[in-house]
Amino acid sequence: MKVHILLIAMMIGHSISGLAQTITFDIDHNSALGPLKPFREVNIGPDSCKLGYLKMGIRNIRTHDYYGPCDYWYYTNNYYLPSTNSFNPSFDPTLPASYNWVETDSAINRILAVNATPYFRLGISYPQAGVPTIPPIDPNNSTFTTIASVFKHTAMHYTAGWDNGYTHNIEYWEIWNEPDGIFWSLPNGTPLNYFKMYKTASDSLKLLNPDFKIGGPGALAGTIVAHNKIYYDNFINYCYTHNASLDFYSWHLYGCFNPYSIKNYADTVRYVLDNNGFPDAESHITEINPQLGNILYDNTAKGAAHVASILITGQDAHIDQIYWYRGTGLGKLTFPDKNGQPRLTFNGISYAFYNWMTSETDNRISSTGNQVVNFFFNRDTTNVMTLASKSFTGDTVDILVSNYNSVFNEIDLHLTNTPWLPEHLIKIEQYTISGQPATLTISAQMITGGNTLALTTPSMPAPSVLFFRISKVGTVGSPGLNNPEMISLIYPNPAEDFAAIISREETQAYLLDASLRQLQSIFLKKGENMVNLAGLAPGIYYITADHIIKKLVVK
Q1: What is the CA radius of gyration of the chain?
Q2: Domains in the chain with CATH codes
Q3: What is the pTM of this model?
Q4: CA-closest candidate to residue 217, choices 284, 275, 147, 276
Q5: Alpha carbons 117 and 378: distance in angstroms, whole number
Q6: What percent of the chain shows pLDDT beyond 70?
């Protein structure tokens, strides 16, 4: 009997899992919830990924883990003496000769070159050979005036022109990183010594520029998850009782397999700040990654969905900035640029989707239907979420869906109260990241308008990411917009060396690869056109022109 029951249970389970399971999200065009939070921040870069950073719209870059540049011991001359593992008593932090800015200047200028702003971490990168983790205590006493002066002159060089420097607008200055870890070694690496250093350095920076935003400590994920009070409540309370500036509290989060759990921790950080005298202090996650080196999250559909769920969760969490670890290299969002084109990972494409929203439709509208689980920080719990926004004219709506982990394999989106009339032409662009290995597919269609719009996306099991851009592009009868088949690919498709395109009118078209990189600009005359495909690697490509996207397979 037990065997029969087991078989029946297995059969029932199999039949249920084989059914399409649909989740519905209701989106109200008529609502207005305010702007989206920017959330396009990373650690290090852009290095050789300039175009990738531009495509993702990265806005703030934390100067951590360049392993030399932006580390105080690296850009000072003979302050730290590795031969004695001590600090030079004759070092004078007020003299230009005490500094060598060349490589740090280069790092800062590369950040500015991609229209981002440095978020200057004052201290050291992850300790490697020769990196001093000893607290920078003044020789022969227990004060931190020398390192405070080094930090002050660093800010003077980059914001006040000191020592042939610059007048950059660098707002955020983070003092140290993870003093609760291996960055602050014993016996002098005590919490109280960090608190003293923080107070001395923050006072010095505020005297230079009271508009600077000063914060720390870049607390370990373990400190936050276990609520270890030393570098959490105690540090915040020390700042309050000693009148030390704390414009932001910075903390880290790793091992977060449930992306929605960042809300639980962010809300707790907010509570602790509020109840220790800092209701106006910002809360920054200055390092976040599900798990470094985990191939499940590195350039995969699961990684892309994790990123999307974090960005969506952050909208309703008490969090002000979220810095992905990292933009390049470990946990990368982009590969180095190649042939004048960006090369985003699938994780980075989620950032690009979000950039489109915050750049062009930065007016959040109501979306209901999310299924999430509180807590369970280190588990793959149910998580399927959506975020919607509209342009200020209302003509364009963006919808980002993250099916990170759920039983649903069909997504229904109901967009209501739209301002579009039956004579309006509406373009619907769809971008989907799914599969293992992951692929990005794009498509587009034209429909006429109406007060409601229903979109169904079958075959979208977790993990996957879906992005819709829905735009009013004209009215029926408008030149060049009346026929949704403005261009059409003809034989052969799949193609080898050439593909023929028929265009209804003269227009400009573009050849894109599967990662949406523009490869060619093509002028199409009315009628038949031959496109040279020689030199293209086999794979999926797209031809886009006049609101139409056509898939082309090269074999």
Answers
A1: 27
A2: 41-356 (3.20.20.80), 485-555 (2.60.40.10)
A3: 0.86
A4: 284
A5: 32
A6: 93
